[in-house]
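Thread: Newbie trying to understand structure tokens

Hi all, I'm a second-year student working on a class project, and my supervisor (Dr. K.) asked me to get a predicted structure for one chain before our next meeting. I've only ever worked with sequences, so writing a 3D structure as a token string is new to me. If someone could post the tokens and maybe explain what I'm looking at, I'd be very grateful. Here's the chain:
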Amino acid sequence: MEFLERNSNVQIRFIPVRKSEAFTFLRRILGTLSQADNANVKKGIDLHMCLQNSEASVTMSIVNFTNLMRVIPDNRVKICNIFTVSSQPDALAEQISDDTETQSVTMLLSGIDAFMKNGKAKGVVEYWNQFDTNNPKIDSIVYAMRNIDYGISLCDINDILRGWRSLRELLMSENHINGSTPMEQLFEVLLDTIHNYGPLPEADKLQFFHLVRWAYKKEFWQQTLTLIESRAPQDFIDNGFYFYCDSEENREQVARIFGQIYYDLRPFEKYKLDHPSHYYIKYYNRQKASHQKHGKEYIQDYAHLRAEELNNQNPEEIRACTICPDKDAVEDLLFAYYYVADVRNQTNHAAETYDGFYNMMADSDIGERMDMIRQSIDYFLHCYERVTNLSKGKTANVIEITGEDVVHYADLLRQQYRNRER
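---
Reply by user tm_fold:
Sure, no problem. This is what the structure looks like when written as tokens:
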């Protein structure tokens, strides 16, 4: 075959192996790959396999190994065909079947397993790319899974949320994957598997707490910290755990206070009030906390100060509101949030030491940093559940201030000051 003109640039290797020598076959494939690398083969290797009367375990070993080669970086092996030959009773000839698509189901199953365990969609995407499909629902599933994967890799919470929302819409849709091909049937199974994933895809609303628990359970450490640090403030406001306005009568006063803060901020800090709710939870009155204290002591002092704002009667300041009857529980939740944010900031850097802690990863599988991350997240989840349980049955009348409201009142203040100067 190599002498044919169309194969002038092709090298053909035949690797016959008896059914009891599956691992010999795998070693010979690796040897052939090594020879191809040494010969500087640039166009890759097309692999055609014929599994004749192989035992099931041998067949699965070979197929799993070849599927593994697909995901090796810079790999140039393309599995073109997998033929099976089986003997039929009372038949003179053996039956030859092209099981390429059927055998590659292991690739999809491995991809599903990787997504369910680690949020990685590469295996599913590669299987989807391998076979042509005209099924829009399958395409939507793959796009949603890829959004989740990219969001996790880039620590982009918006991508993760977008992916989960898309999957939830697909799960809630009455339009099933209609089709008779193995691929369509397998993706129907995939949807059922995700449906049994837990409260995250099944809840009526994508809950912040469920998303945090999911990321934590999957050991996406930085993603969990980022999710808490960036999304908890709005969640506290929405649920009434800790917020700044509970009546329309107080709305203008609160907006004016935010407007004054915006006016006083330096130009490069004004972005903080693009989202007043986030600013209120994370930064409001932070300058009043004792700066002579450091680490946990400073965080405890600030959390206590914020809890005392629930009793604040000063008209020049914002009086905090909550539906939780236990002020100490609210203070603990605020402390847990501030501590998570502090841990995230510290562990996000590559310094060898920080705040007296050393990077112990060379001497330990976990290390002090990992211990601190786990403890901070565990404590946050504990405090969050406690406040949630104490607040059951209560509804908060949350009046929100927008970034536009803040800018509006800041402009009014600016105009007032200019008029006085005149």
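A couple of things are worth pointing out once you decode it. Strands lie at 45-52, 77-86, 95-98, 353-354, 357-358. The CA atoms of residues 116 and 197 lie 8 Å apart. Feel free to ask follow-ups in this thread.
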